[in-house]
Amino acid sequence: MIFDKGLVEAALFSASGPLHLRDLAEKTCLSEESAYDAAESLIDDYNRREGAIQIIKTGKEYLMQLREEYTHVAGKTSDGEITKGTMKTLVTIAYNQPLMQSELFKNLGARVYDDVRTLVDMGLVSKKRVGQSAELTTTKKFSEYFGIGSTKKEDIRAWIDKKQR
Question: Between the CA of residue 24 and those of 42, 121, 133, what are the distances in Å?
Fold first, then answer.
């Protein structure tokens, strides 16, 4: 088990984003059951440590990331996966959800189409066709990714307001 945990930890550390359980198993040459057991055990280990790094689970995907309370330090030293422009699009969607993509376009311009595609691909935003446009909302993964602890629109809005102070 210790060896399995090391393999899973190395895979998560070197990944550029979340890893699905099947990908984690494939990268480590473990069975899905062994990869699952190791990943779940690592989550417990990291939570007990209370360090700057955590492993989170969203559905069947795992991600190693900084805990929210340490992101201000990393923000000064590294570029995140999400560009500032895409982050602006994400915050606008999160704050005003559900939001029609046509409204987002009116407010932020044509770049939102690429941003929305990126955010949907990352699993942070869901897009549902409504007439000639699409309705955009954040996903459970968005709340977990940013450590918000809730998927309720009001809680997300309060979290954003707090961050902007």
Answer: 13, 19, 36
